[in-house]
Amino acid sequence: MTRAQRVKAVIFDLDGVIYRGRTALPGASTVPQWLCDRGYQVYYFTNNSTKTRESYVELLAGYGVKTDTEHIVTSASLTAHYFTDNGLLPATALVVGEGGLVEELRNAGLRVVRRRGTRPIDYVVVGMDRKFTYAKLHEAQQAIRSGATFIATNRDATYPIEGNVIPGGGSIVAAVATAAQTEPILIGKPSSESGKLIAHQAGVESNEALMVGDRLETDIEMGRRAGLLTCLVLTGISTAAEAAALPETSRPHWIIESIERIPELIEGQSSVREALP
After folding, report:
1. I need a surface site. Which of 16, 100, 255, 269 has the fewest CB within 10 A?
2. Last residue within a domain, chosen from 166, 186, 206
3. Could you report the per-residue pLDDT of 3-50, keeping only the tens digit for each?
4. Does 85 qualify as catalytic in the annotation?
5. Residue 19 in contact with residue 13, Cβ under 8 Å?
6. What is the model's pTM?
7. Given 15, 122, 156, 214, which residue is catalytic?
8. Are residues 108 and 175 in the same domain?
9. Of 13, 129, 156, 214, which residue is the catalytic one?
10. Is residue 168 one of the residues assigned to a domain?
C-alpha cells in the first residue's frame, strides 16, 4: 500500500492554503467537497487565534466550504483544551489577543482579564492582537515577572495576505518573551500534541492523516513530529527550495502548487511525485 492509499483524514491549514487574505485559493470550493464525497474526513486547523470556531464555519461558507465546529481546530480552542484537559481550572488569565481567544477561554471556564488588578494572575495568554500596545506589553511583562505562567497560542512570525505578509501572532509573543525574559509554553503548531489530538478525534492512526499546509516550520514540522503524512502547498509562505534545504526528517512527503492537486495526490497519480523516498 502506498502512502497516499493510507490516507483516511485530511487536515487543511487555512491561511495560505484555503484562502490568502480575502481571496480564495485554487481548489478551495471544490477539493474539500471532493474528499467528503469519497468518505474522507476533513478537518481545518489554523494557528490564528483571533476568531472562534463558529466564526470560521461562517467564513469558510463564504468560500463555498461546508463544515462544522467539530471539524475546526484553532490555536485558541487548543489553548482552552490545555486548561480543561490538565485540570488547571479555576484560574485567572491575562489575555493579549482578540475576541476569538477571549471567548474560547471564557467558555472553558477561565476568568479572563485585560489588566492586572488586586487579584493574582495565574496565566498570561498571548496570541495575535492587531491592537497591541506598549501598555499591553507592560501588563503582560509585569504579570509574568510576578509569577504568572506564560502561554503562547502560536509563534507564527508572519501572516499571509494577498501579495504580501503582515506581522503574525509570533511577533507579539516575541515582544512579550523579550520584555519578560521568559519563554512561553507553546500550544499551537508545531506542537506534536495538536496533530495527535486531531488524528484521535478522527479515529485514525497518525500515518492515516494528511496534514496540508503552507509553512514548513509550523504545519509540516507539526505533522512530521506527530507522525502524520505531510504536504506542502506553494500558495502561502514556504517555498520548494526551502523544503529541499531541510534535513530529510523535516521535509514534507509531497509538494504541490495548490490544494487543487490533492485529488491527484490521493489517487496516486504519477503527476504528483513524492518529495521523500
Report:
1. 269
2. 186
3. 999 999 999 999 999 999 899 999 999 999 999 999 999 999 999 999
4. no
5. no
6. 0.89
7. 15
8. yes
9. 13
10. yes
